[in-house]
Structures are given as structure tokens and as C-alpha cells.
Amino acid sequence: MPDSVLNKYINYIKNDKSLTSNTLDAYIRDITQFKEYLLENDIKDSTEVNKTIIITYLMSLQKKGRAPSTISRNLASIRCFYQYMLNNNYIKEDPTHNLRSPKPERKLPCILTKEEVDALLSQPSDKDFKGIRDKTMLELLYATGMRVSEIIALDLDNIDLDLGQLIIGDSRQNERIIPIGSVALRYLKKYIGEYRIEVLKNEEEKALFLNYNGDRLSRQGFWKIIKGYSKKLKIDKQITPQTLRHSFAVHLLENGADIKTVQEVLGHSDISTTQIYTYAIENKRLRDVYKKHILELRR
């Protein structure tokens, strides 16, 4: 790979490609490292590179423990370089043609056991405004699987205490109706009927969950509440509002709910998003089976 060609390519992506500074730096770093790899393997002319060489290079990155996302970016960097070479008649064929990036790692969500959920939900006091409000929010979050943005956006009009359900959505097309569990419904009635009024300063305020100023509770405020209670638990897991949503979904599936129902309750537009929870269950089952057999072998 002559330095002159590489320099021309670098000038090209600097001046003609609309790349962010971080992406530009990554592309230059990737192609420079690829050049070093070629030289280490006695390949001095980039026109001699074929698919096999590129695949071998990507495999070497994998052996070094590079993440799939990093390997994918390296392939994108190399592809960009060879497309430049092809367009400027340095080569007749693009060796990256039809090469596919490795599949990204499927990151399984953090899931709480039912015992850990019970421990978290038992943290708030049931004797004052803050305790009842927090207890109601946590119970409702776990009982419905709502997003944190949805729970803080709830108005009194979204709640039907008689039917035991709530309505989420900014339009009829996006609207979904979610039944409320008996425990969450009991605390919701108590909060609305006895405690919300303690901090209410404006009778026209429709927000369900309020802060001490009588205003709608913020997203940041909700995160602080979760963080505060999770600190008191001796659980080696990072607990966020999303953790309860994930746990709700997995526990539903474990109790026999079909994935389509879970998709609708969570409000996922694509069922592939919901399927991550089935992998979490399978992963847990494998761990349980492994632990069981290890214990049996050690008896």
C-alpha cells in the first residue's frame, strides 16, 4: 500500500466525506493498522489484497478479543478505502464486495429475580406521602412494564380505578390499555385518595405523580428514587427503571404469557425487540441446569 495512495485516500475522506471527527479518526486509525498488518505479512501492494486476506485480518482482530462492533467498523473502513481505489482505477475489483460484518453481540438485559423484586418493592414506607408515592410508582412500574417516560407522563385521566386499567399513548393509533395488578391498584387508590392531595397546590394539575412542590415528577427525580432504594439492597446488580421493565417481561413469559401479548403490553413495534427476553430465559435455564449438575457431580 504505497504511502502516496494512502495519503490521497486520507485527504479524500477528510475533504469529501461527511464524517464526524470521531469517525474520521477511527477510519484513519483502522486503515493504518490494516496497512501494518499487510506489511507484517509481506504484502506491500494493496492491489494484491483479496477477500481471503481481509477475512484473515478480521479473524485476527477477533482472536485479539475485539468486539464485533469494532470489527464491523474495521470492515467499513477497509471497504471505504477499496471503493476509493476502485473509483480511481487503482484496482479492477473491490475485494470487500459481498463481505458481511460479524453479527453484533446480543446483550441480555439485567433481570431481577422475583425475590429481588419483592425486596426492592418493600423498601418504601407506607406511612407518609413520599413512601406511598414511591411504593405506588414501583408497584405500577413492575405490574405494567411501562417505560419511565410513560409513568411520569401519566395523568389522572389515564387511570380507570373502577376497571383497574390505565391507558397509555399520545393518539388512538399508539394507544394501549394495560390492566393494573391488584397490589398496584390498591396502592394507587390509596395514593390518589389520601396522599396526592397533601402536596397538590394547583387544582388544575392533572399529573398523577407529583413532587413536593406539587409539580409533575421529573425523569431525573424518578431515577434518583430508584437509585436511593436500590442502594439499600445487597444486590450485585445495577437497578434502573428499565430493570423493572425487563424483569416484568421475563416474569410474564416465565408464567406462560405468549410473546405476542408481551410485545403488545410493552408497546414494542417490532417483535424482534421483545424476543431478547426469550433469550434471557433460555440463558437463565442453561445456568440453572449447569449449577444443578455441577452440584450433583460434587456430591
From TrEMBL:
Domain Tyr recombinase residues, every copy: 107-291
Superkingdom as given in the UniProt entry: Bacteria
Subcellular location as annotated: Cytoplasm
Residues annotated as transmembrane: none
Main location: cytoplasm
Domain Core-binding (CB): 1-86
Pfam families, sorted: Phage_int_SAM_1, Phage_integrase
GO CC terms in record: cytoplasm
GO MF annotation, one: DNA binding
UniProt KW keywords: Cell cycle, Cell division, Chromosome partition, Cytoplasm, DNA integration, DNA recombination, DNA-binding
GO terms under biological process: cell division; chromosome segregation; DNA transposition
InterPro entries registered for this protein in UniProt: CB, DNA_brk_join_enz, Integrase-like_cat_sf, Integrase_catalytic, Integrase_recombinase_N, Integrase_SAM-like_N, Recomb_XerD, Tyrosine_recombinase_XerC/XerD
Residue positions of the active site: 147, 245, 268, 277 (o-(3'-phospho-dna)-tyrosine intermediate)
SUBUNIT field: Forms a cyclic heterotetrameric complex composed of two molecules of XerC and two molecules of XerD.
Protein purpose: Site-specific tyrosine recombinase, which acts by catalyzing the cutting and rejoining of the recombining DNA molecules. The XerC-XerD complex is essential to convert dimers of the bacterial chromosome into monomers to permit their segregation at cell division. It also contributes to the segregational stability of plasmids.
NCBIfam families: PRK00283.1, recomb_XerD
Alphabetized PANTHER family for the sequence: PHAGE INTEGRASE-RELATED, TYROSINE RECOMBINASE XERC
HAMAP family to which the protein is assigned, alphabetical: Recomb_XerC_XerD
Family statement drawn from the similarity comment of this UniProt entry: Belongs to the 'phage' integrase family. XerD subfamily. Belongs to the 'phage' integrase family. XerC subfamily.
Official protein name in the record: Tyrosine recombinase XerC
Organism: Tepidimicrobium xylanilyticum
Gene: xerC
